[in-house]
Inverse folding.
């Protein structure tokens, strides 16, 4: 997926949307690591600050969690029964 540099949506939101879609479709399964900020920078050609903002948004949405010293993981989604 490409980033729309000319569109009104900030790049970090576009990246967060792409990663959220990958989580939803199972590309990044629950409790598994997702690419590092550095890998996101390389994949999308953005600064570390942009990648960090995208990850902050995903964390705020409850989709990812960071384990210090280990990486960033897809947060397991609790079922409605629990």
């Amino acid at each position: 997926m490409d980033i729309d540099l000319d569109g009104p949506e900030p790049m970090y939101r576009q990246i967060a949307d792409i990663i959220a879609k990958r989580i939803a479709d199972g590309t990044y399964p629950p409790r598994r690591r997702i690419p590092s900020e550095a890998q996101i920078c390389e994949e999308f050609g953005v600064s570390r600050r942009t990648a960090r903002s995208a990850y902050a948004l995903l964390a705020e949405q409850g989709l990812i969690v960071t384990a210090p010293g280990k990486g960033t993981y897809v947060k397991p989604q609790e079922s409605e029964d629990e």
In short: The mean pLDDT is 92. DSSP finds three helices and two strands in the chain. The two ends are 35 Å apart (CA to CA).
